[in-house]
């Protein structure tokens, strides 16, 4: 029979109390707030490129206008003394 510790510390009880059934990480519960709510990956990177959506739409409209000939380019050189 094992003798009890004189300090009252039982490493088996500590391991059982701190065991996490999913990862085995005793700090997982304390770290969970970092990945929920306003700290999710999507929320963190949502503001990384402000104006990218507007710029993409504007550039697409420019390319469509250029493709369909809505932008007339006359070259800028007019020689009317012919």
UniProtKB/TrEMBL annotation:
GO terms for biological process: electron transport chain; mitochondrial respiratory chain complex I assembly. GO terms for cellular component: mitochondrial inner membrane. Residues 1-29 are annotated as: Disordered. It is found in: Mitochondrion inner membrane. Keywords: Electron transport, Membrane, Mitochondrion, Mitochondrion inner membrane, Respiratory chain, Transmembrane, Transmembrane helix, Transport. Its main location: mitochondrion. It comes from the Eukaryota. Signal peptide: none annotated. InterPro entries: NDUFB3 (IPR012576). It holds the Pfam family NDUF_B12. It is a single-pass membrane protein. Belongs to the complex I NDUFB3 subunit family. Accessory subunit of the mitochondrial membrane respiratory chain NADH dehydrogenase (Complex I), that is believed not to be involved in catalysis. Complex I functions in the transfer of electrons from NADH to the respiratory chain. The immediate electron acceptor for the enzyme is believed to be ubiquinone. This is NADH-ubiquinone oxidoreductase B12 subunit family-domain-containing protein. It comes from Ampelomyces quisqualis. The lineage of its organism: Eukaryota, Fungi, Dikarya, Ascomycota, Pezizomycotina.
